[in-house]
Request: fold
Amino acid sequence: MGYVVLCMQWALQMRAKPFSSGLCLRSLGILILNGVAFLRDSTKPSSGYKSATLYRSLARTGSHDIMTDRQTGNGPAFGHLRLADYVVVIYCVLRILVWELPLFLVTFFLARTESSTSFVSALQYFLVRKTSQLLNPAGVRWLTRPGSEHVDPVLTSRRYRPYHGNIYHTIGRTGFVGSWVMQSSLQSPKPPASSDLTIFYLHGGGYISSQPAHYLLFLLRLGEAILEQGISVSIFALDYSLAPEHVFPTQLKETAAAYEYLINEEHVSPEKILIAGDSAGGHLALSFLVDLANERSSSGNALPKPSGLALLSPWLSLHNELPSFKANAQKDVLSAPFLRRVARQFLGHDVAAQDNPLRSRLNSPYLEFLTPEPAIEWDTVLPSWVWVSAGTDEMFFDNVKTWVGMLEDRLSQERVTLAVGPKKVHVWQWLETIMDEGMKKDFLGRDVGDGKGFEATAAAGRVIARQVREHGLPDPR
Reply:
């Protein structure tokens, strides 16, 4: 998975062992050697993005879907580094080992209390926070690795091997690329139009990284939890273009094209569509809904809005000014420098610079959802129900609380629901599916229908299913 995963594996190995300076030094020595070896191996030419195992499994089923690792239309392949990028990665590794990690260890063990986050979790969050802060977009993509490396273990696992021909089909149309994670069910796929619910998912990653493949396990677990509630579900994830190669509003245009595809080509009723997104994906979802409402008011012939909206730790403001940004700076996986940098990269300008031509537009209702200018008519923009989650230990917590409180004042409280995760960090539901290797191994070793594993993600699925039922399932077509 990358150097960060090596660090996480080291932390997991230490979980059951008493802490000692000798153990720490030996473990750090192993960590350094692993990091050097990983950097050395990463310079070897790639044999291709699709692993041989997955190619063979697809060949046996006669599938013609080719899973691509698309990063951008004009950028390098996802997860591949140039020489200059390797210099940045090496600098990041050395800085973390020599300075940041020792400082974290001292601070953690001196300042911890009985209610503090566990050492393993705190170390994982620290590593994600620091690497994303120090690395450039190419380095972040390198750490997350190409999407095929996330898909292969899922499709070849005991849990999903019997259905691998029904899972994760990538399609491309004029204006966008995306993937059908599942269609109606895992066992007997049907056209999405026949599903009770179609989730249109927009992934996070600060607009600079991630692909639908990185969310495959999360989305499958989410879908399984909804299926367990007796609701057939299809999930389509957009593979939008990434910054800095492609700046806003490219991603907004691709979202609109994909939504039109769902309605006009797949014939999915808007009453059955739930738009969902995490972090930057939540930001993109709101931007799209604002755009959809503006189109509807200006031309009168825009597409109808979807039935529901689910946001996990959404990025609601580029200003990053509320108290939780400082209070949770050492708890969350995000960092203020990272947020400032990715905002500059996806807008194509320095958002803090006085001569920024976009400075007067930073409060645009397409970009800013706490203090937009002009104000957003949320009753017109939002679907009939909205579900939002946020963790008390994440930097966005106050932003989310403020936004939901504003909506509750303007809309009926039954229309908006906030789920708060005590001592949870940014998008903790997704993080558990990529960080907890033990839970992942156990989950993939079970059969579909076994409801155990990734409880935070499953809980989100059950909430979505309940919201769909409460607001009424549309008549099947």
In short: The beta strands are 169-173, 176-182, 197-202, 233-238, 273-278, 308-312, 385-391, 416-421. The chain has 17 helices and eight strands. Confidence is low (pLDDT under 50) at residues 1-76.
